């Protein structure tokens, strides 16, 4: 496999585009449900590895592929709520606040 991280890489938009580009076999139904989560985890793995996603350094192609493979694999047999990649899944449960009626004031102008 020849990986050239050039202008073609910078034009990739969807999770499927990235998976196809890096020649990673994937389940389209699983990717359809988790595409944003996979891309966010891919980005997180690139940052953790000290790789700049927009750096067209050809020698890093296999590192990028490995990060994407790990990101995809983390959702095989799991789901977004379990993996908690996006901030919305890491937020605490909404809390209930009770406001007594006596605390409500009505002002008229």
Question: What is the strand tally?
Answer: 0
How many H/I helices? 6
Largest sheet: none
The succession of helices and strands, N to C, reads HHHHHH
State the end-to-end CA separation. Answer: 74 Å
Overall pLDDT: 76
Low-confidence stretches: none
User: How many domains?
Assistant: 1
**Shape type:** elongated
Structural class: mainly alpha
What proportion of the residues is helical, as a percent range?
40-55%
Return Rg in Å.
21 Å
- What portion of residues belong to β-strands? under 5%
What features would you highlight for this structure?
about 110 residues, mainly alpha, 6 helices, about 50% helix, about 0% strand
Outline the fold blueprint.
Elements: H1 7-10, H2 15-21, H3 28-48, H4 61-73, H5 80-83, H6 87-90
Helix pairs in contact: 3-4
Description:
Helix 3 crosses helix 4. The chain has helices at 7-10, 15-21, 28-48, 61-73, 80-83, 87-90. The chain starts with 6 loop residues before the first helix and ends in a 19-residue tail after the last helix. With 109 residues, the chain is mainly α. The longest helix has 21 residues, at 28-48. The chain is 49% helix and 0% strand. The chain has one domain (7-103).
Nutshell version of this structure?
The chain has 109 residues and is mainly alpha-helical. 49% of the residues lie in helices and 0% in strands.
